[in-house]
Write a structure and sequence with these properties.
alpha+beta; six-stranded antiparallel beta barrel; 2 domains; Pnp Oxidase, Chain A; 305 residues
Length: 305
């Protein structure tokens, strides 16, 4: 964004329209390269099979073109200092963010096709994330006037980029598990559990991370729990319609999101023929008296290693 702001200021001083547009496109390509590289590096830690070169190439192409198109009106329009109303800027930015975010997400989804089970959900994630992000960008871009010095414009560009990047990162990061089949609601709950606001949910919900027995993929979901002995007990309501708990039919190492941090634990399924089942059921119904735990239903016990 610093490069894009610098290019825009230089473009304003360019003597010809082609030179002005060239500077804007170069700024957009730099912005797109930075975006693609940083996103790819972050995602690669979570999705090691992601092809960074493909991701960056698609991002640069769409982001560079998008930035040029978004900048055309300012470069080809009038040169007076008349500024649109803030409400109009916000509304227009939100629409552009949703459209461009969806287009960028559609391109980037091609790089996710062999990596995640639901790559096309990235289109919606990207559109949702870029809508408020573009509002931040447009507010920052329309704040400087022609009287501002070039260093001031560059500084505002850097601050705008930092704020926009934070918004984009938080929203897309919270919703990214949706690519693995997790619902958007679950993603949002886990995002809160992993933030400094985790105390809002500490007494009722923990995050659970486990590996699918057949797919080998990592699953993350929020689960309602009760304390039982040295660990937690979880009742997978409507167990016949859910499959995640079946991965723990044989005990396996899991991770639990507690106190804002993931901690190593061990999870296993117990049934009514296990001596710990009655104790677990009692603990759960005492904590959640409105929940009916049928006789003989499976329970999940999570204990520290």
């Amino acid at each position: 964004m610093t490069a894009a702001a610098t290019a825009a200021r230089l473009a304003d001083a360019a003597e010809s329209v082609p030179a002005s547009l060239t500077l804007v496109v170069v700024g957009g390509l730099i912005e797109g390269t930075a975006l693609g590289v940083l996103q790819a590096v972050g995602l690669r830690r979570w999705l090691p099979d992601l092809r960074i070169g493909v991701w960056v190439g698609l991002t640069v192409a769409i982001a560079g073109i998008g930035w040029a198109l978004a900048s055309l009106p300012s470069q080809l329009g009038s040169t007076d200092d008349t500024s649109p109303a803030l409400a109009l800027v916000i509304a227009g930015a939100a629409l552009i963010g949703a459209a461009m975010g969806g287009a960028l997400g559609a391109a980037q989804a091609h790089a996710l096709r062999s990596v995640v089970p639901h790559p096309w959900r990235w289109v919606g994630i990207s559109a949702l994330a870029w809508t408020p992000t573009m509002v931040v960008i447009f507010i920052g871009a329309t704040t400087p006037t022609a009287q501002w010095s070039t260093p001031s414009v560059i500084a505002v560009g850097a601050l705008t980029g930092a704020a926009a990047g934070a918004v984009l990162g938080v929203i897309s990061g919270v919703l990214s598990p949706w690519l693995l089949g997790q619902s958007a609601v679950n993603s949002a709950v886990l995002g809160v559990r992993g933030s400094r606001s985790h105390r809002l949910l500490d007494r009722s919900v923990v995050g659970l991370r486990l590996r699918g027995r057949r797919t080998g993929r990592t699953l993350e979901l929020p689960v309602q729990y009760a304390t039982s002995g040295a660990g937690f007990v979880v009742y997978p309501s409507n167990p016949d319609h859910k499959v995640w708990w079946r991965n723990l039919s044989a005990p396996q190492e899991v991770q639990v999101l507690v106190g804002g941090a993931w901690r190593a634990a061990r999870g296993r399924v117990i049934t009514s023929d296990d001596p710990a089942w009655a104790l677990g059921r009692r603990a759960y119904t005492e904590r959640w008296p409105r929940v009916s735990v049928p006789e003989g239903c499976p329970l999940v016990v999570i204990s520290s290693r």
